[in-house]
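2024-03-11 09:14:02 INFO worker-7 job=invfold-0412 stage=load source=structure_tokens
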């Protein structure tokens, strides 16, 4: 049985036998989160409005780096997000949601100036796929949606072939949220090169990739890389980020006064901030989520992203072997180089199977009642994978779970 590399750094639910396999939705809470939230209420109490200028540096207490609520989005971007992405200094900033970042991007005149098509795979997450369609009624930016392959993956050949002189932006998921398939770096580099040849921008959504493996955005050649810290990085709502390639000039129309060059001069005309990252800020930034945003990232960086990936591969290897032994088809890739942290099993009545496992304190989820999703992570062991698959094997053999009821107490599945 493998040992989880950093189990004591997380807070587990009050069920001694719980097996949490949903890192693709919400990671376990890092130990330091309650302490950090206490620091927020203390800073608020002690410093009031002055906290915008200066608070004690709880994020890097071993340094003298000055930090205040005003500078936190870029400070945490530099200190914690950039190392996750292999990004250079001054290229990353925290964001409230991927959705917001995409709105800012599509509202930038510099996008439409490059062409009149937004090229997006149908497999992209709604924050991108729906936005590309919605903006087409406001701007001369037509969505060009590329259908997936029969295996529901990005149709790489069709996508590359579709990049041309009309393309303004190519937007892809680094890891598909419905397949767990990771697009290979060689393909992404070809997309980047072709996009560059046609003066188009290239955006990658790495929500399911960042924090699960080392990433090198410069090597991939993308112009923007978005993602969030809610999943494997164990953050919470309001903890997303964007990387903007050095030299990228964008002036989002949606920018707010926090993205203005001289906000406290209250000039009558807007003036974009010289740091392009800050132009992706809107109104007053929500400060509380930034207190705990990077505690999970800190743990993963301390462990090393190579070790995180190695442990993930050990766990997904075991899950795949157990699925093979049960003859359960997989929707996620088997090959290690295309695999993400997720394993997706094609099972009948997946929703009911997830409910059955939940009753036994094994937490997975299902999508469209077609696949059972699991993403074992640094807090899991191969023994836990075995426990999950023992239950799955028994349930599939007996079949009784197929007629059980499903808890429909809320909209979130
Ligand atoms: C691939 C991907 N992109 C984006 C999001 C969420 O984006 P947002 O921050 O807009 O809620 C998710 C959420 O699960 C996702 O899986």
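2024-03-11 09:14:09 INFO worker-7 stage=emit residues=413
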């Amino acid at each position: 049985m493998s040992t989880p590399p950093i189990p004591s750094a997380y807070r587990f639910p009050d069920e001694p036998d719980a097996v949490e396999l949903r890192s693709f939705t919400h990671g376990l809470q890092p130990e330091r989160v309650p302490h950090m939230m206490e620091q927020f209420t203390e800073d608020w109490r002690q410093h009031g409005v002055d906290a915008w200028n200066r608070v004690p540096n709880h994020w890097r207490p071993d340094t003298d780096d000055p930090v205040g609520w005003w500078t936190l989005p870029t400070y945490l971007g530099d200190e914690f997000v950039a190392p996750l992405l292999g990004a250079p200094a001054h290229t990353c900033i925290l964001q409230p949601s991927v959705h917001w970042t995409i709105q800012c991007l599509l509202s930038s005149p510099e996008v439409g100036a490059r062409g009149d098509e937004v090229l997006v795979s149908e497999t992209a997450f709604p924050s991108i796929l729906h936005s590309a369609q919605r903006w087409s009624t406001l701007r001369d930016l037509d969505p060009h949606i590329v259908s997936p392959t029969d295996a529901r993956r990005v149709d790489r050949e069709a996508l590359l072939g579709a990049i041309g002189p009309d393309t303004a932006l190519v937007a892809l998921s680094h890891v598909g949220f419905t397949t767990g398939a990771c697009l290979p770096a060689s393909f992404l580099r070809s997309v980047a090169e072709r996009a560059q040849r046609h003066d188009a921008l290239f955006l990658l959504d790495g929500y399911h990739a960042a924090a699960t493996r080392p990433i090198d955005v410069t090597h991939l050649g993308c112009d923007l890389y978005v993602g969030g810290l809610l999943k494997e990085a164990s953050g919470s709502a309001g903890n997303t980020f964007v990387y903007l390639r050095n030299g990228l000039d964008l002036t989002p129309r949606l920018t707010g006064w926090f993205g203005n060059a001289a906000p406290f001069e209250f000039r009558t005309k807007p003036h974009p901030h010289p740091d392009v990252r800050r132009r992706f800020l809107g109104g007053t930034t929500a400060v509380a989520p930034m207190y705990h945003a990077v505690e999970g990232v800190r743990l993963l960086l301390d462990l090393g992203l190579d070790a995180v990936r190695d442990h993930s591969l050990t766990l997904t290897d075991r899950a795949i072997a157990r699925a093979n032994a049960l003859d359960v088809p997989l929707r996620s890739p088997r090959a290690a180089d295309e695999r993400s942290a997720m394993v997706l099993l094609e099972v009948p009545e997946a929703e009911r199977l997830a409910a059955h496992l939940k009753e036994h304190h094994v937490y997975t989820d299902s999508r469209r009642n077609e696949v059972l999703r699991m993403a074992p992570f640094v807090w899991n062991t191969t023994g836990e994978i075995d426990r999950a698959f023992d239950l799955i094997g028994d349930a599939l053999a007996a079949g009784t779970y197929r007629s059980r009821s499903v808890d429909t107490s809320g909209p979130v599945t």
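2024-03-11 09:14:09 INFO worker-7 stage=report msg="The chain is about 35% helix and 15% strand."
2024-03-11 09:14:10 INFO worker-7 job finished
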